[in-house]
Amino acid sequence: MKPYFSFQWHITDECDQRCKHCYIFAENTGKCPDRMTRKQMEAVLKNCRDFCEKFGRQPYFYLTGGDPILHPEFWTLMEMFKAEQIPFTIMGNPFHLTDEVCQRLHDYGCVRYQLSIDGIEKTHDWFRKPGSYKTTLEKVTMLNKAGIRSIIMTTVSGKNIDEVPAIIDAVVAAGAKVYAFARYCPTSEERENSISPERYHKLLEDCDKIFQQYEAAGCETYFNRKDHLWTLYDYEMGRFQIPEDAEPDMIYGGCNCGNGHLTILPTGEVYACRRVQNSRVGNVFTDRLAQLWTGRMEAYRDYDKFKKCTHCKLLAWCRGCPAVASSTSGGDFYAADPQCWAEQIEGLLTL
């Protein structure tokens, strides 16, 4: 099978939550939420198919919003996916999921459904809305029953970092098939990021112990070590070694921005990464995605520009999170990751 290329597709801004760390509503502009028409969604699919044919890839969609299920043509899009046998993941809310809806999603080809837990009940409901915590955990069983792989994601910030171990316990108890966390990217003029490299290292250390304990006990939850700083941690622990036959100019892993991912917003705007606020590269309705990929997207593959990573032996496997770096540095994609502790590991940086 051809390798997949992932498209994170926001079909609508409409949402029945107003999360405090949301990119769409954080600035409270009061504007009417954007959403695509049916014809526009057909045009997006055509452009994405053209891209995959050009580069010999299989399309994979991460369908989101807002909450994609609130789009009036949501089920029409599901029919389009099914007709072309396109696999997809939905990143949405729990409130409109029923046994019938979950089974229908499965029949249309939904592989995974990602929900969010951003703290224990009081903290999570403060971030999102009252009742969200219980509803989210309750829907995990429903998704599993329908044959959809349930995913729980946490956005880690200074507000909830101490609660992550308790979140893991709750997620495992609920029966989630996958758990992962990523770091909060401040929006607009906010630059505060109160997590020090030492505190984040401690989080990874604590979670690593918890993950291993659950894995040894036969836990069915897969712990996706999503943050690329896990590579730095594994190197420090001796669990990852740089291959002797690694080619010097090859990128083997790490941040997917510029390598196998594009984001499409309801307005048609194309972003290198949704979490990088200034990463607009074009518009899906006026630009051919294949041309954007070999044109404006080249800027996100200029690895010699990274302020710290370019001096690190793990450049080809890590690069931390440029979105977090950008959001805390005033928009510099190549800035140093604020939670990276590579300089504390002897011989890793070649400064």
TrEMBL record:
Keywords: 4Fe-4S, Iron, Iron-sulfur, Metal-binding, S-adenosyl-L-methionine
TM stretches of this protein: none
PANTHER family per UniProt: PQQA PEPTIDE CYCLASE, RADICAL SAM DOMAIN PROTEIN
Cofactor dependency: [4Fe-4S] cluster
Record-annotated Radical SAM core domain positions: 1-220
Taxonomic path: Bacteria, Bacillati, Bacillota, Negativicutes, Selenomonadales
Entry protein name: Radical SAM/SPASM domain protein, ACGX system
Pfam families, sorted: Radical_SAM, SPASM
InterPro entries tied to this protein: 4Fe4S-binding_SPASM_dom (IPR023885), Aldolase_TIM (IPR013785), Elp3/MiaA/NifB-like_rSAM (IPR006638), PqqE-like (IPR017200), Radical_SAM_PqqE_MftC-like (IPR050377), rSAM (IPR007197), rSAM_ACGX (IPR027583), rSAM_sf (IPR058240)
PROSITE patterns for the chain: RADICAL_SAM
Keyword 4Fe-4S: yes
A GO molecular-function descriptor: catalytic activity
